[in-house]
TrEMBL record:
Binds 1 zinc ion per subunit. Acetyl-CoA carboxylase is a heterohexamer composed of biotin carboxyl carrier protein (AccB), biotin carboxylase (AccC) and two subunits each of ACCase subunit alpha (AccA) and ACCase subunit beta (AccD). GO terms for molecular function: acetyl-CoA carboxylase activity; ATP binding; carboxyl- or carbamoyltransferase activity; zinc ion binding. A zinc finger (C4-type) spans 29-51. Residues 25-280 form the CoA carboxyltransferase N-terminal domain. It comes from the Bacteria. Coiled coil: none annotated. It catalyses: N(6)-carboxybiotinyl-L-lysyl-[protein] + acetyl-CoA = N(6)-biotinyl-L-lysyl-[protein] + malonyl-CoA. Pathway: Lipid metabolism; malonyl-CoA biosynthesis; malonyl-CoA from acetyl-CoA: step 1/1. Component of the acetyl coenzyme A carboxylase (ACC) complex. Biotin carboxylase (BC) catalyzes the carboxylation of biotin on its carrier protein (BCCP) and then the CO(2) group is transferred by the transcarboxylase to acetyl-CoA to form malonyl-CoA. It is found in: Cytoplasm. InterPro entries: AcCoA_carboxyl_beta, Acetyl_CoA_COase_Trfase_b_su, ClpP/crotonase-like_dom_sf, COA_CT_N. This is Acetyl-coenzyme A carboxylase carboxyl transferase subunit beta.
Amino acid sequence: MSWFIRKEKGINTPTEMKREAPDGLWYQCPNCKKITATREHKLNAYTCPHCNYHEKVGSDVYFELLFDENKYTELDADLTSGDPLHFVDTKAYPDRIKATQLKTGLKDAVRTGHGKMNDVKVVIACMDFNFIGGSMGSVVGEKIARAINYSIKHKQPFLMISKSGGARMMEAGFSLMQMAKTSARLALLSEAKIPYISLLTDPTTGGVTASYAMLGDFNISEPEALIGFAGPRVIRETIGKDLPKGFQSAEFVLEHGFLDFIVDRKDLKDKLSSLLTMLK
Ligand SMILES: [Zn+2]
């Protein structure tokens, strides 16, 4: 049966002859593995129509989703990081920053802006996980602090969208100081009686959870987001016990009283704007 035997050797198809679907037409859900057209996935706010898995998205998507007609004024768009510690790991820190800026088109791991959300004026700060794991360095802290200042000055509610691996190792102590700085600024926001909503998305961990992400008048989350301080392995080894099922999921954290509610990304804009209208 020579049908099933390749008689001629060295049959190679050049790449340009291969007829494959162009990239970006389909999205495969990493959770349920089902396929969705990219367009439909986008219309669905980047959530899976089969299992509701919330794909990790960046500040550009959240801004488009939340600001009316994607119109907003970005604050401190050009703030970039220094290298206070002359930190070198596999790369020098300034080289890592430059490479990441080129790769992502972002200046650092947070973008801040103000605009309208269903006609409600709002200031939004949104983290980008693509930028060195959404790590919080001095630029992240400073931009958030300045966005809070803007909120106070213009009496507009503040929405923080967190997505972070924690403090930025390459700025060590300077990163940790951002926890105090942002928390102090949020205290001023609270004194001015301006609402602060903190949305935790997958993942929100480390120093971000331990500071501004958990200080909202409302702490809310997307479904099944990982929320924690230290990773589960470290905790397991420290307490010497197995961890309960679903530990550090948004649902678990909600059940234990650390969150006010979980919101589907498709309902995010309407829920947030009606919440802010109620608080007026
Ligand atoms: Zn799915």
